[in-house]
Automatic annotation (TrEMBL), chain A:
This is Iron-sulfur protein. It comes from Streptomyces termitum. It holds the Pfam family Fer2. Residues 48-150 form the FAD-binding FR-type domain. PROSITE patterns: 2FE2S_FER_1 (PS00197), 2FE2S_FER_2 (PS51085), FAD_FR (PS51384). Residues 270-353 form the 2Fe-2S ferredoxin-type domain. InterPro entries: 2Fe-2S_ferredoxin-like_sf, 2Fe-2S_ferredoxin-type, 2Fe2S_fd_BS, Beta-grasp_dom_sf, FAD-bd_FR_type, FNR_nucleotide-bd, MRET, Riboflavin_synthase-like_b-brl. Keywords: 2Fe-2S, Flavoprotein, Iron, Iron-sulfur, Metal-binding, Oxidoreductase. The keyword Iron-sulfur applies.
Length: 353, 294
């Protein structure tokens, strides 16, 4: 009989507990677990979701430049300075700045200048010019923004040639915000400079046009005296960006957008310092950081070796990274890299290894 | 001792590699099993648990890696980590789609995040025995959970009733790609546990914890989805619903779930005795999502 009493007692206790839990959960359905203050899950970074867009328009805004109108459903919002990765028919991936209207949720615009192989082109722009006609479906990734427009009372924009693409929406945003801005727009000739008329119409005498065939190189002397609160943005050829950097006042740097897309494999040689182990590894042009570092640190984690799984992520302490992965967010890119594909944009990286 | 090391079925071993996947959710309706929100949401709970859960697997295994003294097992564990990382991303990428359809998952996922990142996280333990004990406990938990992911993987690969009822092909492909990789790597977690610890008492204890927690989180997730589904007038969810759908073949059957319990607790258990690697590999070769989408 004592067994029966025990069973009855246990059953009674279980029933009471169930009622208590039920009424508690009715008042707060997600009781009793606490939540993480800044949730990590639930926002999907989209690395496994392809986004296909249709080329629905082609225009020629300047000599040798093609503008594509890309249409898709529910395209992610973007801000001036953002770019997308475009997967070309050959499978190669190139980055292009968005140059349309950020308020349009269904249309992206990009523009690309044909760069022949004789001028160091790697075939991406040729594919865009020759294969992406109206009605062709392409896959894109992103957008991402490495060149964000921060709020400032005044702006100076310096654009060179096709480098005007990220600057165009920036100028429009600055104008819409009522900011004081000026633009120096350089190019080989007026006919080769896209969106020139639009910009002049928008800015009037705030736009200084410097066409090389008329007036040679731009005079950047005014940059030496730009006020501290003025944000300076520059996108264009390396030479122009170097000139703008040199013309800035002591201790100040312009914000730059580099147009050197990722090379398909390899790149230049550089060095990687492993700070915790106190060693320095040379990474040759034809090897990945992962392959080079693995010889020094055999237990290194990695899996896909193509920049999508994220297993090989490492913390970057110093150095500018040339990110070539498809996974990390801009915030993560600030201090980490996927060493299976990403490389160094300068001569040396320092990793926390 | 309790370490009767059961032998794996040798032919079942394959080299593991993360696959690049692509799943497009634009066409997937909210109730992707037509007319059956209960089944839809019971399976949808995977999207709530797996992003944080599989990230946690990766986190724990990264710490376990230095203790592995068998080269082939280390290769397997690294392959496992890569696959789990992609699983976590792929399920997380479904959640914004649910939110767009009016079903915001974040109140629940924020709790799952807390569960895995804080409750089962690293904790401030002194290096040495305490830290190793906590690591082994978590390695054993993962082995127990992987028993169920392999069980579910094998189930979804064979759940033809879902096809017959017109379930969304994109969602089925995500589940079957994931399920097939779970079947493919089903031995890794158990072998790692046996390699590092293998104690039967720990195995039984962590099984009870994992099973109880899974049941708790799962029923809670189903209720959460049902109650917050904007298109449902009657959001009730009960065990009877689960049982009936198990009989119909659109969810795992309750007897099959119960039968899996003694199998894991058997001293001669080895995951390679369950599931069918050939079927999994064949699915992966044909899956649209696992081959870059469309």
């Amino acid at each position: 009989m004592p067994r029966l009493a025990t069973v009855a007692l246990a059953a009674g206790a279980a029933l009471l507990l169930r009622r208590a839990v039920r009424s508690r959960m009715r008042s707060a359905p997600l009781w009793p677990l606490p939540a993480l203050e800044t949730p990590v899950s639930g926002y999907g970074r989209g690395a496994t979701v392809p986004r296909r867009v249709l080329v629905t328009g082609r225009a020629v805004p300047a000599e040798g430049v093609v503008e594509l109108r890309l249409e898709g459903e529910r395209l992610p919002a973007w801000e001036p300075g953002a770019h997308i990765d475009l997967v070309l028919p050959s499978g190669e991936v190139r980055q292009y700045s968005l140059c349309g209207d950020p308020a349009r949720p269904d249309v992206y615009r990009i523009a690309t200048r044909l760069i022949g192989e004789e001028h160091g082109g790697r075939g991406g722009s040729r594919e865009v010019h020759e294969q992406l006609h109206e009605g062709v479906e392409v896959e894109i990734r992103g957008p991402r923004n490495r060149f964000p427009l921060t709020a400032a009372p005044s702006y100076v924009f310096v654009a060179g040639g096709i480098g005007v693409t990220p600057v165009l929406p920036m100028v429009r945003a600055a104008e819409a915000a009522g900011a004081d801005w000026r633009l120096v727009y350089c190019g080989r000739s007026r006919a080769s400079m896209p969106y020139l008329a639009d910009l002049v119409r928008l800015g009037g005498d705030r736009v200084t046009v410097v066409a090389q065939d008329e007036s040679g190189h731009p005079d950047l002397g005014f940059l030496a005296s730009v006020p501290a609160e003025t944000a300076v943005y520059c996108c264009g050829p390396e030479g122009l960006m170097a000139a703008v950097t040199a013309a800035m006042p002591e201790g100040r740097a312009p914000r730059l957008e580099r147009f050197s897309g990722p090379a398909p494999a390899g790149g230049t040689a550089f060095e990687v310092e492993l700070r915790r182990s106190g060693r320095t590894v040379a990474v040759p042009a034809d090897r990945s950081v992962l392959a080079a570092v693995r010889e020094e640190v055999p237990g290194l984690m990695y899996s896909c070796t193509q920049g999508f799984c994220g297993t090989c992520v490492q913390t970057v302490l110093e150095g500018e990274v040339d990110h070539r992965d498809e996974l990390l967010t801009e915030a993560e890119r600030a201090d980490s890299m996927l060493i299976c594909v990403s490389r160094c944009a300068g001569r040396k990286l320092v990793l926390d290894l | 001792m309790s370490n009767t090391q059961p032998a794996p079925v040798a032919s079942e071993h394959v080299a593991l590699k993360a696959r690049k996947v692509a799943f497009d959710w634009q066409e997937t309706p909210l109730h992707w099993v037509p007319g059956d929100p209960f089944t839809t949401h019971t399976i949808n709970v995977l999207h709530l648990l797996l992003p944080a859960g599989e990230r946690w697997f990766v986190h724990v295994y990264q710490q376990a890696l230095p203790y592995i003294t068998d080269d082939r097992l280390r290769e397997d564990v690294i392959g496992f980590i890569g696959q789990e990382a992609v699983h976590s991303q792929a399920h997380d990428d479904v959640l914004p789609h649910l939110r767009r359809q009016g079903l915001d998952p974040t109140p629940y996922t924020a709790q799952v995040d807390w569960f895995f990142e804080k409750l089962l996280g690293d904790r401030t333990l002194p290096p040495g025995r305490a830290r190793r004990w906590w690591l082994m406990e978590r390695v054993a938990l993962i082995a127990a959970i992987e028993h169920y992911t392999a069980f579910l993987g094998d189930w979804i690969l064979n759940a033809e009733e879902l096809d017959r009822r017109g379930a969304d092909p994109m969602m089925l492909d995500l589940l079957r790609w994931h399920g097939a990789e779970e079947v493919e790597h089903r031995s890794v977690a158990f072998e790692l546990f046996m390699h590092l610890d293998g104690g039967y008492r720990r195995r039984a204890r962590t099984w009870a914890l994992a099973f109880g927690t899974l049941v708790f989180l799962w029923q809670r997730g189903t209720r959460f989805f049902m109650e917050n589904d904007p298109g449902l007038l009657d959001p009730k969810a009960s065990w009877a619903d689960f049982y009936r759908r198990g009989r119909a073949g659109v969810l795992p059957s309750t007897p099959a779930v119960l039968r899996s319990v003694p199998r894991y607790l058997s001293r001669s258990y080895h995951p390679s005795q369950e599931g069918d690697t050939a079927q999994a590999v064949a699915y992966l070769a044909a899956s649209p999502g696992a081959n870059g989408g469309r």
